[in-house]
Design goal:
Length: 145
């Protein structure tokens, strides 16, 4: 039997600039919904519909960077800690029932492996899109209000 790689299901906000980041998909996770093998495809469809609805009522977000931190024990990463704005928390609440994370929600954007922080740390991040990820597949919507 083949060893099937686990892939994540998530909803995330996408920033307009990415020069501060060292990962392939710069983002801020709104909710981690679990692994694809545990979430039915109908769940992905429901998340995409909800993200589409959110994109119609939410405007782009400007979120203050509050500092640099290291997250994780096994594979630590540098992150930009973000302010918990009412708008960000409202979007999170719209997806909270899907939360399958073992960690509390702490708004952040991953920079990359520890020690790879560059000197161009932004003061704010501007998010203009919301995406739903199913493994390597993404459906992205513009925040249009």
């Amino acid at each position: 039997m083949d060893n099937v790689e686990e892939k994540s299901v998530m909803v995330a906000l996408l920033p307009t600039t990415t020069d501060w980041c060292r990962i392939e998909l710069p983002h801020t996770t709104v909710v981690y919904a679990g692994e694809t093998k545990k979430v039915k495809i109908s769940g992905f469809n429901e998340l995409a519909k909800r993200a589409s609805s959110v994109s119609l009522i939410a405007r782009p977000l400007l979120v203050k960077v509050t500092g640099l931190e290291v997250f994780g024990d096994d594979e630590p990463v540098d992150v930009l800690r973000l302010e918990s704005t009412p708008e960000l928390l409202a979007i999170r609440e719209m997806f909270a029932s899907w939360d399958d994370s073992e960690f509390p929600f702490r708004p952040h954007a991953t920079i990359g492996p520890t020690g790879h922080t560059n000197t161009n740390v932004p003061l704010v991040l501007f998010f203009d899109r919301i995406t739903v990820g199913w493994g390597e597949e993404y459906i992205t919507f513009w925040l249009t209000k």
